[in-house]
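Troubleshooting log. The previous structure file for this entry was overwritten by mistake, so regenerating from the original sequence record. Sequence copied from the archived sheet and checked twice against the printout by T.R.
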Amino acid sequence: MQELLAEMEERRKQVEALGGEERIQKQHQAGKLTARERVEYLLDPGSFVELQPLTQHLETGLMEGADAPADGVITGYGKIAGRTVFVFSQDFTVLGGSLGKMHGQKIARAMDLAVKVGAPIVGLNDSAGARIQEGVDSLSGYGEVFYRNAIYSGVVPQISAILGPCAGGAVYSPAMTDFVLMSRGTSYMFITGPEVIKSVTREEVSFEELGGADVHNMKSGVAHLEADGDEAVLDLVKKLLSYLPQSDREKPAIVETQDPKDRKTPELLDLVHPDPRRPYNMHQVIQALLDEKEFLEVQPSFARNIIVGLGRLGGMSVGIVANNPRFMAGALDIHASDKAARFIRTMDSFNIPVLTLVDVTGFLPGVSQEHAGIIRHGAKMLYAYAEATVPKITLITRKAYGGAYLAMNSKDMGADIVLAWPTAAVAVMGAEGAANIMYRKEIQSSDNPEATRKAKIEEYKQAFDNPYVAAGRGYIDDVVSPEVTRMYLIRHLEMLWDKREERPWKKHGNIPL
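Regenerated output below.
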């Protein structure tokens, strides 16, 4: 027995040695933790239980005799803040973290277990891509993972941390997960690398310029959050998970807060000016309303005309969707529509209520927007809000014009509660544009066209540029002071917490992708 135990321990030591000391040092010199160090940092101390550590690669073709401890990926489960989480961590010190058949199979088995027990899946990606030496077997390994990314979407939270290279087919698994986080300077994602691009298009570009963290957080919208270094990214993973439930079968936990539910927010009285042309800081509005003024913004650098993120009201997790009047006057364009629609559907998947703050002039006009499909993209927001069955509360802070008013979750689109501030204005369009259209002939035939135009604009403002007409029609449930809005939001959210709403049975809807 002692000999058998000694052999077992020796095999474990070989696995725990990763790709060897030299490669571990290179990993550290590149500013990255090893695969095992990442798991240890992410999970509660002493909670990690490894699965299939003794897995061997397929002994076929060019892989015969190759040394690949654990086949280049560590899988298992542990706890974060006392809650079970499944994790896989790709090991760049073993064959560049490349994915082979058994590597992919290990990830797939961990995902299966996560869904069976109802626990989030966190992937720590650091891989050169498909293992060329295994040929089609490596593609099969990817297929096993991609398939599960899709069928388990909306079942348990899936979070991808990109902590090194992620190239070729490897990018599609993170792209199908709920949240993608990247480390600045040490991670990148792309389908085809700089050398291939140069050979095909003759464009010269660096790894960072092609697919670095800033690119995907600011330009492409592929990533949701970024931070400097592995530890900072893993800290964001922990924070993100704190707002989410374990699975679609649960609601997010209600946490204790020292922030009084009836806390007044007098600072909002002066922040939002009645003049619709004067921008204000919507982030300050959001933070003033939320518990402890804590707001985890998602995709903060992409499509900045819309704000999305997570916070709490009275200890209850809530997803925020808000127009940002400081960028494009809060108008909705293609990227903003995509960003908001995806976030709304993520919140709905995991039973997180949605609070929508409205100050929108409309959809962004322009030939480029129309030709690029603003109709199709804008329809995604309408679809996402209508489809969502979680508690939905809308607060109109100022402008709510045209079809964008509907796209920001009006009462007709399924909002459970719609509140407005006295500064709100709900109409088909702004007063100036409406007056110019409605009274064009009268203005043109007037002896003093400019005076007539101003008079008609004021007439329209009195009729529509206020919340009371909409409130009188039942489209707004109440007009409240900014000072007491937090209290009303929490009361409404508590009332809606156990909401049940069914949709007609169907295989699935057909969102305008």
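Residues 31 and 217 are 21 Å apart (CA to CA). Archived copy saved in two places this time.
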